[in-house]
Amino acid sequence: MVKHGGWAGKVLRIDLSTGRISTEDTIEKYKDYLGGTGIGYRVIWDEVPTGTKPFDPANKIVFGVGPLAGTGAPCNGRIAVTTLWPTCWPKPLVASGHMGGHFAAELKYAGFDAVIIEGRADSPVWLQVVDGKAEIKDARHLWGQGIRRTTVDINQQMGPEASVAAIGQAGENLVPMSVVINSYSHSAGGIGGVMGSKNLKAIGVRGTGSVRIAGDKGEWEKVVKLHLSLLGSVNQHVVPNSPQPWAEYYSDTRWVGSKGRKWGSANPNIDTGACDPHNLNRIAYRTNNAAFFLGEKAWQYTVRGNGCSSCPIRCHTMLKVPSVSSKYGIPAVGQNTCVGLLFGRDFFKTFPDGPRGQTAIEACMVGMHLADDLGIWENYGQMQRDFQQLYYSGTIKNKVGEDEFKSYSWDQYEKGDPTFLFELLPRIANKQDELATSLGLGTGYLLERWDIPERDWQQDQKIAYWKLGHPKHHSSEEAGQCGVIINTQYNRDVQCHSHVNFIRNGLPLKVQKQLAAEIWGSSDAVDAVAAYSPMNIYKAKMAKWSLLRKELHDSLSLCNWMGPWIASPLKERNYRGEDSIESLLYSLATGDKKSREELDEVAERIFLLHRALTIRDMGTKEMRTQHDTIPDWVFTDPAGKAPYTKGTNRMDREDIKLAMDMYYEQMGWDKKSGSPTVAAYHRLGLGDVADELTKRRLVP
Amino acid sequence: MDVNHIFSRREFLLVSGVMVVAVSAPQAWGAKEAPLIIMDQAKGLIIADPTKCVGCRRCELACSEFNDGKASPTISRIKISRNLNFGPKGLHTGQPGQGTWGNGLVIQDVCKQCPHPVPCANACPNDAIVVIPPTNARVVDSNKCIGCKMCQKACPWEMMSFDSDTNRATKCFLCDGNPKCVEACPAEALSYVTWRDLTDKVPPRVVPTAVVSPDKAQTCNDCHMK
User: Fold this and answer.
1) What is A10-206's CATH number, 3.40.50.11720, 3.90.550.10, 3.60.9.10, 3.30.200.20?
2) What is the per-residue pLDDT across A356-393, written as a single tens digit (0 to 9) for each?
3) Is the pLDDT of residue A178 over 90?
């Protein structure tokens, strides 16, 4: 019987250089960091020295889940993978990727909260984890194989229930823009090459154990049902996107299910129906991200929704497109979500039948088939935006040799022919030529290699580039100053959805303002999109809350693509959600009773440790000017509209300075440098971190 | 921690008394307790539609968490995980046909609440699989189960679970008429319906290898060789 509720209780440590396998007690060593990114940052801080490069044996990879992974708490299927980030430019810094699927739950059932990978194996290996035991196995026969073949091979050895996270050729070849994938379509970006550098092809996990709920099982059932009752669709959009008999509102949301919209490739097909929010047996029909991103045509190809263990929101859509078998010789069935779904389509500027036609869907199918087998990462679509920009500006022609340029079928590319992807994507995975190798580096290193000033990329909102080699991820175009603040804080694209899930939830501004007043202290915290008001303190409070909930979710194992749950589709609750749902779940699952405020404090500790790691490895405390930078496009408008007028996302430079001032103040950091003070570290129990940074003169 | 239910002695005697309709040969009479032979049909049944299953496994989690206080697909009495990736045939019969890696169909394995002769109950050397009202589900009495796993060898659909924490077998007991799995399904893929016989409709997963003990076999003769 496991000792604690929630946690499995053990962390697995694998030294690939020596073959040593050991375990640590999760509670003893990491309870103050919950799990997930919390364990990840702590391990990198304690064990990976400044100056380590991502592909050095001294770098470590921490696959971490938290106490809620594997339980029936809704939306707990994501595992955080923390390491030094190979596409962070100009200097690699700490970051995390997150993959859903069934790997997180299986790891818990196998008895582990985290797996720390260190060193480098002499020859290709894979790691087998079964019920508390780990074994390093020969993977020479798997090296060179795609992710699909590797997974099937390992499942043949371990049994069909095992969850396998594998890298493809891209990771093996140390392409920085590469992923690790489990459960067919669930990837963590940036990790593939780091695993490849360690000669680690895959991790296969099988667990027959359990995750114990410490609290009363009846209470647990009540809280789980409360949580379920508050769910909307994907991204916690709580309003449907078409009029429904039960709904007071409709809006442009991702809640796309409706009578007449059918899973057309289910046999017989299935009508998604009205999806009344009180019917918890219809939650899975609310979401269809293929239909949201690819248009009405995608419904006819939908087999079903798919997604992570425990999550009733099925954001991965399984599509069956028979034409791709005959046209491109690939399987008719494919699946993914968001940018993974759009991987192939987004390389193209145009298609013969428009952006939401048949060819666009086929390009998605080809893209998923190739990228999720070769294991290529898209950096939130930045690879595709870079590619279009570089091609149509003539840069590719200028930068690669003539023979290489001619080896691509550019006429097909310009016409929007998906067969072009068969030329480009394998070359990226295999680092085959100048273009493909450069694309595989990630934006920052690509620009440097081709002598393009980063500033050129920071001018145009359409390129969507932010800093450090990475794009914006829900910034000023959705959440004004709050979005800007959030986008300054990480070392890759910001994986934070706390703010945007509220802003885009579909409720009228009036209702959103009522909810905002309850949570952040004033209705002034939120504006209508593209009708922003000048900065105020409540927006800074919302930014802080958003960042802390993101870290909390990544450490507890709740999905920050789905949470938080502060709004609901329930009119009788005045559309309120429950701001304490995380603490209710955590307290019952673990038996360690913590209030919302106490849990937010743990989240702040974890977030602060990320900040400290960034400061340590950048070697400067001047974070405000060196790290928390904002691209020029944020302060421009294509039509020249003035900031804070209707219809523009344009921000004002002085106002954003004030925004950053207010944010640092909320965090208790030094405003001038943007660095946390010694007192801030001490307040959150990071005295040892403060001491180390003081020694290095990295505190204000 | 309990698996399934603990019955009061009175309730249990009532149940087992009703079920014993045949006794062993006269010379054995009085020497040992008559074997338990389940004759009553179940009243309810969980049925599943694979075209609607979205593979979230919330049914497995509801089954184990709300009944046992722990998340454990292994002891769940509805079984999704084993078919999720490659379908019921797994990877040993060629191309992945079903599951996420095949055509997308996820087959949900559920207990058939078998009619007489009930394979799991008949294989149990301790008569620990009994019938309880109101659903007449076939249920493991954890007081009698010794954890020998003979029932696991008897079920053609591999629907017997084993809880290594309690060292007891466990199986679907229909949650006394309000199955947690049915309630938990977010895709309306599960239904609780009036019992009907699915034992000759659903292909078995394995060939059962359990044997029926001689005293139980004798009761077959007593009833059927008239």
Assistant:
1) 3.60.9.10
2) 999 999 999 999 999 999 999 999 999 999 999 999 99
3) yes
Cβ-Cβ contacts under 8 Å for A489 (sequence gap 6 or more): A547, A611, A628
| Angstrom distance (rounded) from CA A557 to CA A646 | 38
A67 in Cβ contact with A8 (< 8 Å): no
What domain range includes position B124?
Answer: 9-224
Residues in chain A within 8 Å Cβ distance of B192: none
The CATH number of the domain holding residue B208 is 3.30.70.20
CATH architecture of A477-695: Orthogonal Bundle (1.10)
pLDDT score, position B93: 72
All CATH 3.60.9.10 domain ranges in chain A, comma separated: 10-206
| Nearest residue on chain A to B182, alpha-carbon basis | A281
Among A556, A541, A661, A552, residue whose Cα is nearest residue A607: A552
Tens digits of per-residue pLDDT, B106-128?
A: 999 999 999 999 999 999 999 99
Q: Provide ipTM, 2 decimals.
A: 0.96
CB B25 within 8 A of CB B218: yes
- What is the structure's pLDDT at B17? 41
Segment A516-539 mean pLDDT? 97
Whether A146 and A67 have beta carbons less than 8 Å apart is answered as: no
- Residue at B36 is within a domain: yes
Report whether pLDDT(B25) > 70.
Answer: no
Q: Do A284 and B96 touch (CB under 8 A)?
A: no
pLDDT of residue A101: 98
B2 within some domain = no
Q: Does B93 touch chain A (CB under 8 A)?
A: no
Alpha-carbon radius of gyration of chain A? 24
Q: How many domains does chain B have?
A: 1
Shortest CB distance from B71 goes to which of A71, A183, A281? Answer: A71
Question: Within the 94-123 window of chain B, which residues sit less than 8 Å (CB to CB) from chain A?
Answer: 96, 99-104
Q: Is residue B47 classed as helix, strand or coil in its secondary structure?
A: strand
Tell me if A280 and B69 make a contact (CB, 8 A cut-off): no
Indicate the pTM of the whole model: 0.96
Q: What Å distances lie between residue A488 and A54, A467, A547, A609, CA to CA?
A: 22, 8, 11, 16
| Alpha helices per DSSP H over A20-85 | 26-30, 36-47
Across the interface, of A160, A266, A310, the residue whose CB is closest to B90 is A160
In a domain, residue B4? The reply is no
pLDDT attached to residue B32: 60
B74 Cα to chain A: minimum distance (Å): 6
Residue A204 has pLDDT above 90, yes or no: yes
- Contact in structure between A152 and A377 (CB atoms under 8 Å): no
